[in-house]
Amino acid sequence: MRDMPIVHEGLAREFEHVTQPAERERIGETLGAGDALMQELAYALIVGDHREVDRITRQALDDGYSASTVLDRGLVAGMAVVGVKFRDNVIFVPEVLIAARAMKAGMVHVEPVLSDSGVEPVGTAVFGTVKGDLHDIGKNLCIMMLRGAGFSVHDLGVDTKPEEFIDAAAEHDADLVMMSALLTTTMPNMGRTISEFEDAGLRDEYRFMVGGAPVTPEFADDMGADGYGANAIACVDRAKELLGVGDAARAQGPPATPATS
Ligand code: B12
After folding, report:
1. What pTM was estimated for this model as a whole?
2. Using one digit for the tens of pLDDT, what is the confidence trace for 141-165?
3. In the chain, which residue ranges form alpha helices assigned H by DSSP?
């Protein structure tokens, strides 16, 4: 195991909560790859200081940091530590909500940079977090990246029922129906949604993509999805593959999300 240097004192203390060797290596590497400013950003996110996240993200983008660096080494890396602390009962829902609010304070500044692809839409997607599930950070990241790659994406929000996917896909004449789930209890709702399209005789009208931390490629296959992606980059790549869109439209994107549980 090899930890990279974490120079920010507060962040180093927070990192002590990450005790599993594989997680220490993966998350430590991402945090350590960030410079002092990125580590300050990750720390501000972990402690839920949305004003600091807002300030540092703006400063970083003004200073010429790429959106993907800010996302990967600051915001997403910080959220990985939050995920570990939550799972290990070091923090609870209120603290996670506060961290999520801080995440959004940063994403607001990253979004216009990622979404500004300047190309004609290469495809249309409807994208929602499935019924019963309120997690939307990963979905929002994927949407930013898809828009940055030239897709027109209609955000259906969270707790999206199968009939809402069906209605939105028809309304927007979508090519892709994209679903996110973060809970093992809501993952099956992705398969149920596909079944409802099937029952309505609409299965072959669209391509279905699924993702979210607990989703595996095998699970995606089993439920009859056409595509799966482990992170926002894979989401864009697979979406382009499914629609036969070339690499030319590819925009800059953040590296993979460090999984934390
Ligand atoms: C933030 C968070 C919350 C916040 C959500 C705020 C928000 N606006 O999203 C709040 C506090 C609301 C919350 C609530 C709960 N949560 Co929660 N939460 C998390 C946490 C810490 C981080 C999730 C996150 O944002 N990750 C960062 C993003 C960037 O990653 P991501 O979502 O995985 O997305 C990436 C990929 O998966 C992929 N992707 C995502 N979607 C899609 C879709 C497609 C099509 C593709 C291709 C790719 C793709 O690309 C994304 C970008 O790279 C996770 C821990 C974790 N490690 O996941 C727990 C976690 C998901 N939560 C958990 C739990 C238990 C809950 C609660 C039940 C807690 C409770 N007791 O009430 C509730 C459920 C509420 C509900 N009904 O949904 C558990 C789930 C356990 C399980 N096995 O099901 C986790 C794993 C924590 C844990 N280890 O215990 N949570």
Report:
1. 0.85
2. 899 888 877 899 999 999 999 999 9
3. 9-15, 21-33, 36-46, 50-62, 67-69, 77-87, 93-115, 137-148, 162-171, 188-199, 217-222, 232-243
- For residue 257, the ligand 1 atom closest to its alpha carbon is 53
Residue of 26, 86, 98 best suited for mutating to test ligand 1, as the one with most atoms within 8 Å of CB: 86
Atom 59, ligand 1: residue with shortest CA distance: 83
Distance between the two ends of the chain, CA-based, in angstroms? 18
pLDDT in tens, 62-120: 999 999 899 889 998 999 999 899 889 999 989 999 998 999 999 999 988 877 756 56
- Look at residue 118 in the predicted model and tell me its pLDDT: 62
What is the dotted CATH code of the domain comprising 9-117?
1.10.1240.10
Domain ranges of the chain: 9-117, 123-243
Q: What is the CATH number of domain 123-243?
A: 3.40.50.280
**What is the pLDDT at residue 256?**
35
Fold agreement between 9-117 and 123-243: no
Tokens representing residue 252 in the block? 């800059």
- Closest ligand 1 atom, CA of 185? 84
Please give the structure tokens belonging to residue 38: 């990125």
pLDDT tens per residue, range 114-142: 777 565 688 999 999 999 999 999 999 89
Q: Whose CA is nearest to atom 90 of ligand 1?
A: 87
Distance between CA atoms of residues 241 and 93, nearest Å: 37
Ligand 1 site, CB within 6 A: 76, 79, 82-83, 86-87, 93, 96-97, 100, 132-139, 141-142, 178-180, 182-184, 209-214, 229, 231-232, 235, 257, 260-261
